[in-house]
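In this supplementary section we document a worked example of the pipeline. Step one takes a protein sequence of length 220 as its only input; no multiple sequence alignment statistics are reported here. Step two produces a three-dimensional model, which step three serialises into structure tokens for compact storage. The input and output of this example are shown verbatim.
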Amino acid sequence: MHSFKLISLILLIDLMFSSSCVSNTSDSQKRNKNITKAFLSDIKLDTATFAGGCFWCIEASFEQIEGVIEAVSGYAGGTKNNARYDLVSSGKTAHAEAVQIYYDPNKISFEILLDILFTAHDPTQLNRQGPDVGKQYRSVVFYHNGSQKKIVNQKIKEISPVFSSPIVTLIEPLVAFYPAEDYHQDYEKNNPYQPYVLSVSKPKIDLVARKFKALLKVSE
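The serialised model returned by step three reads:
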């Protein structure tokens, strides 16, 4: 797969200075640290963008995987002017809660990332994931190039027989990604005893950890 270092750098700059988040806080600096370190180390990062219900669960599911440099919660599918949680969560915008994943393709492939995505959420649920209902929780792979589009189409064909209902995951080109507010980043890690995290997020994150045990990071 081709490297998207230049594209990722542009997205990183947008992430750092986007008006949808406060860019000069210590939380934002922590969020960007791993990505910045990767660029300084000349790691050629690729980027994947997925939506599959609440972004807390999807972000944490990928953060534990070796080769994932950073996973950032945010919004995709809508415009910049309404990329805010209070608006997106109302279901009245075109956004989906999404996660942008910066990863080292020498350590993990886009295809394996898709396997993780289809474990971390149920791709047969239309415009919902469990208790979260609305188009903002729809299942989407936002592809960055033709290669990703081809891989996700093939992956869905491969895994469809595993599910008893049709897969409803949308396949759309990524137009823009807007990082969510700082308090959403690393939410599961920072709020491990929050009721929703314990009842909804943690079981999915643990399922990913069990199924992809060989791919887990040795230490955080």
